[in-house]
Amino acid sequence: MKMKYGLLGCSMAAGLVFSAGASAYDKGDFVVRAGYAALLPNESGGGLDGTPVDRMGVDNAGMGAFTLGYMVTEHIGVELVGSGPFLHHLEAPGSSKSDLAVKGEDLGKTKVIPPSALLQFYPYHGDFQPYAGIGLTYAYFWDEESRQLANDNLGGKTKIDIDDSFGPALQIGADYDLSSTLGISFPLMVGAMGMWSHVKADAKISTKMADGSMVKRDSNTDLDPFIFMVSAGTRF
Question: CA 126 to CA 170: how far, in whole Å?
Answer without folding.
Answer: 23
